[in-house]
C-alpha cells in the first residue's frame, strides 16, 4: 500500500517542506486511503481512538446539508466546520505524533488548517489555495479529483504533532478518515538501536571470520 502511495505521489501528487512539518497530497475521488504506517483514529462513524478529542465547533453530516457538501465519493459520516457554526473552527487534539493524514473534501480557498505541536503552538498553516493543496480555481468542486485530496503531514526531525485546527470562513471545511502514526516510545527506540547494534556486531564478526579463514 505504501509503495502505491509513494508511487502516486511521484506520479501525480505534490510534496512540500515547511521546516517543522512536511506535507504530501494525493488526489481523491475516491480517497486513496491512510498510509501503511498509520492507523485509523477518527472516521466519524465510530468513537475516536483513545487519546483523540475535539474542541470547538465540530459538526458531522451524512450527505449534503445547508452548511456543508458531501466530500466526493464519501458514503459515510464526515466532519466539518462552517462559518454558519459558532465557533467556525474545531481542534483535534492528539497524542504526540510523527505523522497524521486526513481526506480533505471539496477544497475551498477559505479553508484553513493549522498543524499544532504538543504545546498548542502552530507548526504549519495551510489554506485551500496553498500550492499543492488544491488545484486552482478552488471552488469546492466535489467532482474534481484535484479539489478532493488526502493530505499527509509529517513532523520533521525534533518536532512532534499534537493537534490539527480546522477553520472555515465560508460555507464549510469538510474532512474525514483521519489516520495517524505515533512517535515511537523510548523503549521502542531502545529496541531498534539494540537491533541495529546486533546487526553491526554480526557484520563485524562475519568480516573477522572471513579474514581468519582466508
Write the layout of secondary structure elements.
Elements: H1 2-12, E1 14-17, E2 21-27, E3 39-42, E4 53-56, E5 59-61, E6 78-81, E7 89-105, E8 111-116, E9 122-127, E10 149-155, E11 161-168, E12 173-182, H2 186-213
Antiparallel strand pairs: 1-2, 2-10, 3-12, 4-7, 5-6, 6-12, 7-10, 7-11, 7-12, 8-9, 8-11
Number of DSSP-assigned strands: 12
Shape: globular
What proportion of the residues form beta strands (DSSP E)? Answer: 35-45%
**Which structural class should the secondary elements be placed in?**
alpha+beta
- Stretches where pLDDT is under 50 for at least 5 consecutive residues are 1-12, 187-193
Name the helicity range: 10-25%
Number of helices: 2
User: What is the CA-CA span between the terminal residues?
Assistant: 45 Å
The main sheet comes to: 12 strands, antiparallel
SSE order: HEEEEEEEEEEEEH
Give the overall average pLDDT: 83
Radius of gyration: 20 Å
Task: Kindly describe this structure.
This protein is α+β, with helices and mostly antiparallel strands. It is built from two helices and twelve strands. It has helices at 2-12, 186-213, and strands at 14-17, 21-27, 39-42, 53-56, 59-61, 78-81, 89-105, 111-116, 122-127, 149-155, 161-168, 173-182. Strands 1, 2, 3, 4, 5, 6, 7, 8, 9, 10, 11 and 12 form a twelve-stranded antiparallel beta sheet that branches. The radius of gyration is 20 Å and the shape is globular. Mean pLDDT is 83; it is low at 1-12 and 187-193.
Short description:
The chain has 214 residues and is of the alpha+beta class. The chain contains two helices and twelve strands; from the N terminus they run αββββββββββββα. The chain is globular, with a radius of gyration of 20 Å.
Amino acid at each position: 500500500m505504501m509503495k502505491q502511495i509513494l508511487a502516486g505521489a511521484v506520479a501525480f501528487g505534490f510534496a512540500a517542506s515547511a521546516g517543522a512539518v512536511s506535507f504530501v497530497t494525493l488526489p481523491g475521488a475516491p480517497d486513496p486511503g491512510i498510509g501503511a504506517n498509520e492507523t485509523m483514529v477518527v472516521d466519524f462513524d465510530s468513537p475516536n481512538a483513545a487519546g483523540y478529542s475535539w474542541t470547538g465547533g465540530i459538526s458531522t453530516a451524512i450527505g449534503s446539508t445547508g452548511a456543508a457538501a458531501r466530500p466526493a465519493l464519501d458514503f459515510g459520516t464526515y466532519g466539518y466546520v462552517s462559518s454558519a457554526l459558532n465557533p467556525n473552527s474545531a481542534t483535534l487534539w492528539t497524542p504526540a505524533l510523527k505523522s497524521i493524514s486526513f481526506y480533505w473534501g471539496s477544497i475551498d480557498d477559505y479553508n484553513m488548517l493549522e498543524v499544532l505541536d504538543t504545546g498548542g503552538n502552530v507548526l504549519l498553516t495551510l489554506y485551500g489555495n496553498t500550492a499543492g493543496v488544491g488545484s486552482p480555481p478552488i471552488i469546492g468542486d466535489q467532482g474534481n479529483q484535484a479539489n478532493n485530496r488526502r493530505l499527509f503531514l509529517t513532523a520533521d526531525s525534533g518536532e512532534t504533532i499534537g493537534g490539527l485546527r480546522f477553520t472555515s470562513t465560508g460555507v464549510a471545511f469538510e474532512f474525514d478518515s483521519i489516520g495517524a502514526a505515533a512517535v515511537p516510545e523510548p523503549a521502542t527506540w531502545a529496541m531498534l538501536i539494540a537491533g541495529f547494534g546486533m546487526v553491526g556486531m554480526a557484520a563485524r564478526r562475519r568480516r573477522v571470520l572471513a579474514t581468519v579463514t582466508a
